[in-house]
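Supplementary Data S3. Sequence and structure tokens for construct A.
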Amino acid sequence: MGSRVTTAGKPRKTSPPKRSRIGDLRMRDVYRGSAVLAAAAVAAAAVWLVLPSGPGEGERPVAAPSAAPTSSGAPSPAPTDTRQPTDTRQPVGVAQPAGSAQPVARPTPSPGTTLAPGYTAMEAFYADKRLPPLPGKLKKVTRADPGEKVLSDKRTGLAVPRPGGTWKVHRPAPFTSKQVLPKVRGQAARGLLVSCPLPIEAQKHPRDTALLAARWTLNHHPEGSTVRWVAAQPVKGGWALVYQVKYGKRSSLAAVVVIDGGMSKPGLVFASVPDTQRKRWRDIYRVVSGARVLG
């Protein structure tokens, strides 16, 4: 019988199972492709962070804070950076801490200026070519005896002088008190003395309120009227202005007195006398001297 020849103590070497070379190549390609894509993504991100993105030389614009005053509570956080400012009227820059922004002073308009939307009442006054700026130095109102008789206007809280003579009390509407002079034949204008709650918005300074009131009275003068200031002075509780109103070849002497009579709005006393009744111009000064808070 034949016998098997074996080598004692030496194990036979066996070959490892064969693997598919096609499979090996495909997996290696996948791994390498993933690594290449990841590296490309990292490089692209680095380039995007370094290179400028437009006219800002790489800086990303930040919306400027509003100039409006903040509330008494905790300050709001600084705005986050955005690609475009939220208000194109404000300059683009770095946000400032809350409460540090200050209102930008705007120049005083000159008569005849065209105003942009959002103008204030005083800007409208200074831009009105019918009224010149109030001179820095203007004479005080001439004192005159107002007499003892008054009209009590309880809606304004004011005592309105009654000049007497040919002045007559008239139906007040749309005012709260009204006195008039007789009509002059052939003339539409006649003397007028009225009172009412302030028909315009009161300003911080009573002088500015009086200026706006004088502008408002042009609604009761002929179209195209212009103003020349005559006198101005503070009065107890308010301010008074005397001015000449010119319209064509004619004119009127007028006055406004704005006084806080303790009501929800200040009271206005307005008087105007045309040059056809110039003998009553002294009554303008009686009105200014005698208008006061009801006692």
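Construct B, processed identically:
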Amino acid sequence: MRFVFLHKFIMPIITAVLLTSAPAAQAATCGNTSSGFEAWKAEMADEAASAGVGKRGIAALMGASYATRTIGADRNQKSFKYTLAKFLQVRGADTIVSQGRKRLAQSPEFYASLERRFGVPAGVVIAIHGMETGFGGFMGDSNVVSAIATLAYDCRRTEFFTGHLLAALKLVDQGTISAATIGAKHGEVGHTQFLPGNVLRYGVDGDGDGRIDLSNQSDALASTANYLAAKGWRPGAGFQKGEPNFAVIKEWNAATVYQEAIAIMGARIGG
């Protein structure tokens, strides 16, 4: 999914990233043009080090470039202003449902295992997968660290994205991502487009190989179900508008048309 408002990532993630950190250095100075970005990186490096980021993470930050396309995307999210009918048409809902049903038929036990483990039905997970990346068909074309660093530097939502930047740098330290990892224009990664703070907090190993890699479909879908479960998904309860689990879909994305689209497609896919 392309980023919308606060996307699917709420402020407690920032707190979680920093809970075990040393006292933070003075906040780096934000800016609204590229002219101050290099100076900001030096300030941010001190802040990151104080938050527990190691050498590899700091090096990734210092190698980041100002992402002009990210700023452009952040200012231009027109599809979320459409009516529900128009949004479903533009986002290819019928195709997502058709392909989603085929995926469910091909791997019923995998999706059943996710529901047993997390309580989230297949249709919802599959609808999110289809909406976010066309089932992995396009997971982005932007450098993750550069995109997140640019948004942390930009004055529009500095605090929110600073938490995700620190998380991204810690993921670099861990080897979960690298300085060269490619994702979406707001720094989301993987099949269902997690921002780094949520990779750190909600990412799980879905295929049992001992690693968390959201470019791996099993890991990404398990992490998606884990996120929804952590946000309060009630197994067996409804997820249409007005039903208990619709509130959890709202946690995934702040746009009303997106929420309603996932609920509708999820029901159509899951039967």
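Residues 158-174 form the longest helix (17 residues). Residues 80-139+201-270 form a domain with the Lysozyme fold (CATH 1.10.530.10).
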